[in-house]
């Protein structure tokens, strides 16, 4: 019984951790959208900034990956 | 229906990441040839095939394989030169090694039944720690104590500087963590999600609901696979360009 | 609603399966990524891999590709230089052609003038010769005409003298030869 409660908590925690992915999604969308609006204003400068775009996307989605990792840890490692 | 599903569907999304000895059973010593070692070896073979066998003609007008090798060379060379500067070019072979290893193990890991070395924290942590140590050592050797000015933001108001310095130091030491977990997490996540969808696919053999679920899961696998192909390249690119950015910090710490 | 029920069942199933997986891999701490007993192995093979790749790249692949790229750059630069040189050569050749053309034209004019002069000379000589011949022929003809005329006058004189002598004789006179001759000559002169 006790073990079941722990497991239940772990699963609920895993589900909650997955909400972090939504935050990462918003962040990545924000980065890409702002890049696009900037690129449409000044297309000639856009090509030089794709590296920055990818770095920004990588930083934003790393946090989503962290939440995914927490979920996995709760599911499999706790 | 519920008992039908109860029998068959098995979810082992993480089993694909288990490191097994290639020959027989038994404990894994540091020297045991495992599936991880096998796929790293295949990665090396693929790199040699592309960059050594592919370019053996040394043709002025390149063959297809040779132009792919030249494209990869030019891509990373330009990235190192643009981001880290001209003096970063002596680290080019090192960065190119990291890029090729990551990009090839990512793509080879997408083959069915394959093992992805870069999905393991152990591997990516070593890669990230190598970068971290290289950057730190190069920074101190090149700039001496001046490397510490990386943490002292001289453009900020004086009162804020100690706080900023603390934040900068923490973010500096978090770099290898995020650097490694980003790569391993992306690889692991994509493969696990594909595996979860794949576990739904045999439902059509067990219950009527499978008529709807199975095609859906197959479509989902295909879509995820396409995304994973993209991610496999982008993560290698991001790892490489972040390495270049860190290297730039080491070579030119004054912002 | 069956779908939802089904989904719930499957989710539960997934949970059970995951729990089973976690249970059966309990000795390896659930996630294979966190199975520390394999870390040494992976790190060892990773370092071997990286060293091999680095060695292959820095010893063989990168110098070769760099050489090929430099070679291509050199070839392109060389080709451009050669093209420039050929262009200059073509311009030279064009100038030489123009010059040869002009030379040939002036030569041709010279030859034509010379030829014309020569022909003129020949023509002049031939004309002169023909003129002289014509003059000679004319003189000869004149001489012969003079001679013929003289002969004719003589003949007429003789005939007139004879006829006059005959007439005189027929009329019964006797003509003096001297007086006849003088009279005929005076008449003919008339």
From TrEMBL, chain A:
Principal location class: membrane
Position of the signal peptide: none
GO terms, molecular function: lipid binding; proton-transporting ATP synthase activity, rotational mechanism
GO cellular component term, pick one: proton-transporting two-sector ATPase complex, proton-transporting domain
Entry keywords, A to Z: ATP synthesis, Cell membrane, CF(0), Hydrogen ion transport, Ion transport, Lipid-binding, Membrane, Transmembrane, Transmembrane helix, Transport
Xref: Pfam families: ATP-synt_C
Domain called V-ATPase proteolipid subunit C-like: residue spans: 12-74
Residues annotated as site: Reversibly protonated during proton transport: 61
Xref: InterPro entries: ATP_synth_F0_csu, ATP_synth_F0_csu_sf, ATPase_proteolipid_c-like_dom, F/V-ATP_Csub_sf
Membrane topology annotation: Multi-pass membrane protein
Annotated localization: Cell membrane; Membrane
KW Endoplasmic reticulum (keyword) present: no
Positions of transmembrane segments: 12-33, 53-77
Family classification: Belongs to the ATPase C chain family.
Role according to the record: Key component of the F(0) channel; it plays a direct role in translocation across the membrane. A homomeric c-ring of between 10-14 subunits forms the central stalk rotor element with the F(1) delta and epsilon subunits.
The protein's name in its UniProt record: ATP synthase subunit c
Species of the source: Pseudothioclava arenosa
Phylogenetic lineage: Bacteria, Pseudomonadati, Pseudomonadota, Alphaproteobacteria, Rhodobacterales
């Amino acid at each position: 019984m006790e073990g079941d409660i722990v497991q239940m908590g772990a699963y609920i925690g895993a589900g909650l951790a997955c909400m972090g992915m939504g935050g990462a999604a918003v962040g990545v969308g924000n980065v890409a959208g702002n890049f696009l609006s900037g690129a449409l204003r000044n297309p000639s400068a856009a090509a030089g900034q794709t590296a920055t775009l990818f770095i920004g996307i990588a930083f934003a989605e790393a946090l989503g990956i962290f939440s995914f990792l927490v979920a996995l840890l709760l599911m499999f490692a706790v | 229906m519920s008992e039908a599903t109860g029998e068959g569907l098995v979810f082992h999304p993480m089993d694909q990441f288990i490191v097994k000895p290639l020959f027989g059973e038994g404990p894994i010593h540091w020297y045991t040839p495992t599936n991880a070692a096998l796929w790293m070896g295949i990665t090396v073979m693929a790199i040699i095939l592309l960059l050594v066998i592919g370019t053996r003609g040394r043709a002025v007008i390149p063959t297809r394989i040779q132009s792919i090798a030249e494209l990869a060379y030019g891509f990373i060379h330009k990235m190192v030169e643009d981001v880290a500067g001209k003096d970063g070019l002596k680290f080019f072979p090192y960065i190119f090694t990291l890029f090729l290893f990551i990009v090839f193990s990512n793509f080879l890991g997408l083959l069915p039944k394959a093992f992805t070395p870069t999905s393991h924290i152990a591997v990516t942590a070593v890669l990230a720690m190598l970068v971290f140590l290289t950057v730190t050592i190069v920074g101190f050797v090149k700039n001496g104590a001046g490397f510490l000015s990386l943490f002292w933001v001289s453009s900020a108001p004086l009162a804020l500087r100690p706080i900023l310095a603390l934040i900068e130091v923490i973010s500096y030491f978090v770099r290898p963590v995020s650097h490694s977990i980003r790569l391993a997490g992306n690889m692991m996540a994509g493969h696990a999600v594909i595996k979860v969808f794949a576990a739904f696919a045999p439902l059509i053999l067990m219950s009527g609901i499978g008529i709807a679920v199975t095609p859906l899961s197959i479509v989902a696998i295909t879509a995820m696979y396409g995304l994973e192909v993209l991610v496999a390249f982008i993560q290698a690119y991001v790892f490489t360009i972040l390495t270049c950015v860190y290297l730039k910090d080491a070579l030119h710490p004054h912002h | 609603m069956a779908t939802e029920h089904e989904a719930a069942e499957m989710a539960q199933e997934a949970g059970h399966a995951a729990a089973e997986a976690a249970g059966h891999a309990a000795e390896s701490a659930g996630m294979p990524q966190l199975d520390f007993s394999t870390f040494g192995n992976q790190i060892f093979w990773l370092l071997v891999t990286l060293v091999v790749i680095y060695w292959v790249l820095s010893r063989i692949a990168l110098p070769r590709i760099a050489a090929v790229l430099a070679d291509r750059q050199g070839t392109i630069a060389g080709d451009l230089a050669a093209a420039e040189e050929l262009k200059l050569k073509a311009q030279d050749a064009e100038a030489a052609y123009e010059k040869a053309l002009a030379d040939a034209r002036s030569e041709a004019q010279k030859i034509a003038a010379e030829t014309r002069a020569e022909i003129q000379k020949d023509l002049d000589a031939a004309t002169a010769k023909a003129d002289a011949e014509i003059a000679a022929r004319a003189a000869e003809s004149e001489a012969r005409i003079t001679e013929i005329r003289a002969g004719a006058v003589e003949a007429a004189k003789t005939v007139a003298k004879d006829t006059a002598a005959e007439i005189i004789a027929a009329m019964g006179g006797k003509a003096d030869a001297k007086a006849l001759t003088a009279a005929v000559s005076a008449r003919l002169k008339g």
